[in-house]
Amino acid sequence: DVIAFTGSARTAELLQRHPVVAREAVRFTAERDSLNASILGPDATPDSPEFALFVKEVAKEMTVKAGQKCTAIRRALVPAPLIDAAQQALSARLAKTVIGDPRVEGVRMGALVGRAQLDDVRVKVAELARQAPIVFGDPEHVELVGEGLEKGAFISPILMRADDPWATDAIHEVEAFGPVSTLMPYRDLDDAVALANHGKGSLVLSAFTHDPDVARELVLGSASFHGRMAFIDRDCAGES
């Protein structure tokens, strides 16, 4: 009667073109690659609570389940003057992520679902890296904690940076389904809204701001492109 699919755009296209689906006019809906964005508001500064909350959340969403979540943050948007500070803070936090056997005390991130997924993530990272250089991590090398992990599908968290996010469509279209995210600057709030919406529809958008006017503009500008919007600041972060 109906096919409802969530996953990669490539697999969705294969299913849509299946001769039975076409011949029988099967209803088909798909939630394809979701390039979810997180936005640090223009009111933030490197020493503001919202900046720290943003860095913590992006790093967490990159590493929980090794980034294999439809709601993981793939595009991290920050005001242009804060791009270097955000990169340094994110890199420092990601560097503390202990990777390996989840049964070992202190390990914070395990493996991808399998070797095929590892290969796919590496291919996607290589594609993205042509236009958004890697600023943290190495897709080919990772330090592991635990025994007998040589054949495991482990990968380092990968942070990329696109200084001109309008110069490439890949960072807004290609999802590496692993611990991968791209950091990018925005000029003003209108630019942030346009970049978030350039993902062509995402499951979730998160925003870190202590300014109600910023939150209002983001809702009015981006709500129609996102299934859910989460607003986090110093007052609600604990409850959130």
Topology:
Blueprint: E1 2-6, H1 9-16, H2 19-23, E2 27-31, E3 37-40, H3 49-63, E4 75-79, H4 83-95, H5 115-129, E5 134-136, E6 158-161, H6 170-173, E7 180-186, H7 189-197, E8 202-208, H8 212-222, E9 226-232
Parallel strand pairs: 1-2, 3-4, 3-8, 4-7, 6-7, 8-9
Antiparallel strand pairs: 5-6
> How many DSSP E strands?
9
**Which value, in Å, is the CA radius of gyration?**
18 Å
**If helices are DSSP runs of H or I spanning 4 or more residues, what is the number of helices?**
8
Main pleated sheet: 7 strands, mixed
Instruction: Encode the helix/strand succession as letters.
Output: EHHEEHEHHEEHEHEHE
Global mean pLDDT: 95
Helix content: 25-40%
Percentage of β-strand residues: 15-25%
Give the overall silhouette.
globular
Multimer state: single chain
Instruction: For the record, give the distance between the C-alpha atoms at the N and C termini, rounded to a whole number.
Output: 39 Å
Strand order of the largest sheet: 5-6-7-4-3-8-9
Low-confidence stretches: none
